[in-house]
């Protein structure tokens, strides 16, 4: 993607009054095929498919997070209560996985009001959709395998059945090798410094897993070793982080301690605390894949906003 962002005119794409060109239409056909392939695979594995919530009293705090750039959180009052626009459905996933369905997926719209400067990265949107999964009692490795299958099989489906689209997009798509390589964040940091994400992405032609990233309270932290059993998947060619996920915290004392350590308002997470105190919060692992970023990578987009019919580029509020 590097270099391509300069060719992209965000104001023009956000204008939405001109008919879509061939290229844009091809992108949306690819997206349809990818979502169908991924949903079919998950359904065939016995996953439930739930529809998302948009407003809720509880959502992902998105804090602490080394990549934090939220300039505003959307909170409104309805029926005398404050609700928030979903920043991610992590809290709902943890509750749901504890209440019966032990594996499921959700296409979940998220609102994250990123700072305007992030328009230029080519990979940020202030509304986007995650393909979220959560699996009771799972470990990270099982989640790696599931997403590796979703990614390679959807690339395969696009390569086999969408030759015309790839031609229009001038995209020479190759099948990545699985399993993807796994790196520890601290090792990358030592080797490349703060810029590790870009460096590792430019050195690899396939996506890579990065593990052990200190962040939100809900990801599992091993108190003895200090290791975080969480991960990101980094795409090549500058398309950025496309998945983040983790094994989860499920013990009351630990959750409470981490919420306090992070200075987070405990009230919003009372349901997690209550379930965990009663021994009803099941251990699980899961993750979410940024749909638009993944499609941007498949089609070789100049900017991830090309993958949205109504682009949500940081700093730009279009008329529709
Ligand atoms: N989807 C992520 C997870 O499952 C949360 C996030 O959006 O960062 O951990
Ligand atoms: Mg997160």
Could you explain how this protein is built, in words?
This protein is α+β, with helices and mostly antiparallel strands and 320 residues long. The chain has one domain (10-307): BirA Bifunctional Protein, domain 2 (2-Layer Sandwich). The protein has 10 helices and 13 strands. The strands form 3 sheets. An 8-stranded mixed beta sheet has the order 1-6-8-13-12-11-10-9, with helices on both faces. A hairpin with a 4-residue loop joins strand 11 and strand 12. The longest helix is centred in the first third of the chain and has 23 residues, at 22-44. Aspartic acid is lined by residues 60, 88, 90, 130, 132, 244-246, 286-288.
CATH-assigned homologous superfamily? Bira Bifunctional Protein, Domain 2
What is the radius of gyration? 19 Å
Question: Biggest sheet, in brief?
Answer: 8 strands, mixed
How is the largest sheet built, in terms of strand order? 1-6-8-13-12-11-10-9
Strand runs, count: 13
- Proportion in helices: 25-40%
Q: What is the CA–CA distance across the termini?
A: 27 Å
Question: What is the element layout, followed by pairings?
Answer:
Layout: H1 10-15, H2 22-44, E1 48-50, E2 55-56, E3 70-72, E4 75-78, E5 81-85, H3 90-96, E6 103-111, E7 113-114, E8 127-136, H4 140-161, H5 163-169, E9 182-184, H6 185-192, H7 196-203, E10 208-211, E11 230-235, E12 240-247, H8 252-261, H9 270-277, E13 284-290, H10 291-299
Parallel strand pairs: 1-6, 9-10
Antiparallel strand pairs: 2-5, 3-7, 4-5, 6-8, 8-13, 10-11, 11-12, 12-13
Helix pairs in contact: 2-4, 2-5, 2-10, 6-7, 8-9
This protein binds aspartic acid and magnesium ion.
Aspartic acid binds at residues 60, 88, 90, 130, 132, 244-246, 286-288.
